[in-house]
Amino acid sequence: MDDGAVLPFVDKNSAGHALTFFSAFVLAWARLGFDISPFAAAFAASVPGKRSVAAILGSCCAYLLDLDGTYTARLACVTVCTGLINYCLSFSDFRINKRIVAPVNCGLCSLLSGITVLVVQGFSADGLITYFCESVVGAGCAGFLSRLDFPKGFFKGNEPLDVKQLSGVTVFLGMMVMSADQLVICGVSAAHIAAMTFILTASRLIGLAGGCISAGVMGFAACLLPDASLTGILYTFAGIVCGITARFGKAFQCVAFLCSSIVVLFVNAGEFRMLPAL
What pTM did the predictor assign? Predict the structure, then answer.
């Protein structure tokens, strides 16, 4: 198994590449403020080297469906560069520390591509700050993703993830939530349902640490979305409560999550219009 594999619970076959392709396709749709979208590049820099090609293809297919001139072209170039560097390094003779190389790869490619755009279109302080922030966010996400290991026991239910691995899992799912936020079926957001399910699961399996980490990352991810500040507050508060009450059983934990969510909604009564989006 490759060190830091994002999807190691699938063998190195067509199914694994298909999952990598799909994940990259979804991550490429994420759009944060000020045209920041570093998630696909971070993913391409973090997956096992041989799967970086699938990550490149998935993200580029998503970009082709959402053409937006220089903006989309630059994102595609960053993702291709990070993925190819990851792919080439996987065949190198010397052993590399992926937990260091992945964030450096993503951060530098993002920053250098942004500087190139500024040189061509004209320098501006706002543009430089935007590209610098994108490189920092991308490097941070790549650093977390490169730590993922997914022990088999997590899926069997008898050997839960440790705190470091849980952080990587939560960041990855937070990125997926931000990317799939627009997927709403009958007024219900599938991404938010998945986020709440993960908070409950992490709290149940790992306790207070799982609840705090999953709630903090999911809450922060929700706050980055337009008009979703209430959802972020709800995730953070309800997740901490779930972690505290996890030792009392599943039923008590679910009731605690529901009650804490209701408290947040009542305190922010003016934001009840957001309730259908949960």
Answer: 0.75
